[in-house]
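Final report, section 2: Outcomes. Of the targets proposed, Cysteine synthase is the one most frequently requested by collaborating groups, and we therefore present its record in full.
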Amino acid sequence: MKYKTIQDTIGNTPLVALQRIRAEENRQRGNTILAKLEGNNPAGSVKDRPALSMIARAQERGDIKPGDTLIEPTSGNTGIALAMAAAIKGYHMVLIMPEDLSIERAQTMKAFGAELILTPKSGGMEAARDLADTLVAQGKGIILNQFANQDNPRIHYETTGPEIWEQTGGEITHFVSAMGTTGTITGVSRFLKEKNPKIQIIGAQPSEGSRIPGIRKWPQEYLPAIYDPAAVDELVLVSQSDAEDMCRRLAREEGIFGGISAAGACWVAQQIAQKVQNATVVFVVCDRGDRYLSTGVFPA
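The predicted structure is given below as tokens.
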């Protein structure tokens, strides 16, 4: 008998309906709000998909080989997923991230055997990306570059999008995703638009002054190369306070223990639902809430 390995458990995550948050209002309008539970992946986030995809496909092409050192700047979830994927495939993983991100993320990366380099909070993800480029230029490793690597959106085109289409029986009308590397929204949009061009793709971005882990509004010079503006029909801004409040509500009212970026996407999904009728709105629960406990978003 051939048994599954841990990498075989990535993907095919549940899609569940919200039952209580604005339930009566949504029922009256004929709307259904569905949450794609990507926290059910083995390393706890939607980033498990592109992490394994980027390493496995680079290895298939002969760009890397087991034992090599891989370098990647990350805001957290991609780093955790890459640390797991590197452990599976036999690579040394060096992760670079801003120092103000949650301690749970850093500890999880180290648990998978990754080496962690912290950059100043003031520099944000831009500083982490710059340092990664410097280390690669010095010959200290190979960068997978989630921001420009087409194996990132490709895996969402091949797996996440088809799963959502099948799980909704093709009834999806709106897809909402937090925007970080933009791999998820770009890949899923590409698939869903091929199936039905009328499906609306909505990106959640942070409002001015808001810091929401996993959601970014990039300066033009740092805009991910994989991002296709034509793939997104609408951008909606969400505040840090609204995302954090929705994070607590998802846990208390729906039993969905998701992260802050996931809650931001949920908040946007609810805003969209107020403007439409007879809609099936899907949002991505990017990760689990347990990696945000030290941030104070959940009351002690």
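The chain has a mean pLDDT of 94.
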